[in-house]
Amino acid sequence: MNTVLVIALILAMAATLFALIRGIVAFLQASKEQLNAPDGAPSPSSLKQNKMMMNRILFQAAAIIIVAILLLMKGNG
User: What whole-number distance in Å separates Cα of residue 50 and Cα of residue 8?
Assistant: First the structure.
């Protein structure tokens, strides 16, 4: 069981890193014109940035939950 959780933790950490890098790349690709758009509607780049950062938060939460489960199992074992 511990092995499965450790593998899941590594996958969650890798997914967190991947989402973080994709969000930063999307942020860096946003042009100044897109950032200063007067229409007020979010650009596709902004939407992608938001999506990647929300994914990062979800993956981080999954990693934290897995760590908590591992710690609980260690304490009860």
Answer: 25
